[in-house]
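Technical note accompanying the year-one report. For the benefit of new consortium partners, we illustrate the data format agreed upon in the data management plan: each record pairs a sequence with a structure-token string. No post-processing was applied to the example shown here.
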Amino acid sequence: TSTSTASASAAWTSTSSNVANASEAAESVMVQAYTPGTRCTHASGGKICTPSIPEDAMTLESCLECCRLDDECIVVEFMALGSSGICTTLRACDRTFASPGDRTATFKKVKAGSFDSPQWMMVCSVAPVMTTPCMTEQLYNEVVDSVQNLVRGLSGHCDEDSCEQADFAGCVLRMAGHDFMDYNASSGLGGADACTDMGDPDNAGLPECLYEGEFGGKVSLNNAYWHFCGQVSLADFIVIAAEAVMSFLAQGESKAHLAEDFRRLFRYGRTTAFEGCAFSRGALPNPEESCLAVKSCFVDRLRLSWTQAAALMGVHTLGRAQTENSGYSGWWSDAENSRRFNNDYFVSILAKGWCVEQNVNNCSSSAEAAGDCVRKNQWQRCDVGSQDNYEMMLDTDMCLAFSDGEDGDGVLQAGHDDCCAWVHTMAIPGGKTIGGDFNMSNIVAANGNTFCNVECGSDIDVLDENGEPFQCFNDKLRQAMLETQACCIQRSNKPRNDCRSEGLGLGRGPGGPASEAVRQFAEDEAAWMEVFLGAWTTVTRNGYSEEALKPLGQC
């Protein structure tokens, strides 16, 4: 049996898949595979299971079936001995640890639809700690380096179809976010405790980067966690892993400061929970509910301001949405920027044009009526040249800066509002939510002096048959009409309907509840980083007292 975590996991998972399927078909009970070389700590109730026909060999399949049919069996250990093996069923098992070279594999019995905690899936070189007993700066740095080496080993080439570094980083951040977003300030439950239901459809795609292995088993966080699980709780590790990918993919001046800021603000002592977290199922914000979901989750439960909520949403600058995971599809920015931790997410919201794209996941009416799927709606980039880039935004992104179109309910939703979301380049007097002008000059400059994919000052025949220059920041009516065409050209065959925003002027506001924050963050990356760090500190400490979490080195 291989002692390699990645290769061994792939082999045993494939071996157990038929057994799991057969078990589900029988009684909706399956036995979930772990990696070889793992045994239980503090196990109890061990019984040796023998074949019903004595001369038959005890195979892995027979062992798993033995556990499935035994009501008292919670976990089963199978030791391979040539063509046969020894099968031990257990009534209890705190968690698993790895014993390199051991031919034993541990499996957990779960009912289909029951709660499945990440800690159960992770493989450790020793018995893992549930609470980090002590963490120095050196240990923190070693964890960061280990995770960053995983990212460093992935391809940095990005195109419309793939970007390994972006996909892995986005998945790591999604794991951290799905962990802390179940916090409820009213009840005090949840938070960054490494306890989220891996069987929840909202968490589809997370097992690959956490323990199964992305890109054909090439990399997972378990490859790094393996080395530190005896010193660092999984709850702390997931937070550090997220900080590691963000600081590694940061750009320019931000890169120099972000790693130090994360290290300075980090507090250790989070306790991993692997039971009693069923409340986390369904706790994530539903993008279809737009800013109503942002308010419910980020403002009410996580206790962030709207400005902080917008800043935290900036993590969408890394990675993309994939239909098989969430039902949505596309990059939040261009592919290359999707592997850079910068403020391009906010620049994209305001410096590009966006139109609705309904039923992205092709959910038919009959399938929806049968409860087999739910239609997903999003915003697709629709400005000049946008057909060459598949970029998207969710309702929960766009609603920060824009509000509805003609139906007047105040909530921007792609499923109901067939409007085009864009702003003018010229400064709109009084357009900002707190006075002053809605000024786009620095934002357009940050976008390569390009607005809605048209270079400022260029001649563009597709918009003006006379080929006159596209004069950004010009307040003449002609330029206003050109900008309308440039930003919404993909819906030119539809009646004009603009989503509301302070950036359009002429009484076209109000925009979204964080429109000024989006504008400020698009204009100034340092301003975004400052607010983001405060929001990140809040959400990763929610649920813990000041005494429970300690600064690095304070042991």
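Partners are asked to follow this layout when depositing records. Residues 1-30 have pLDDT under 50 and may be disordered.
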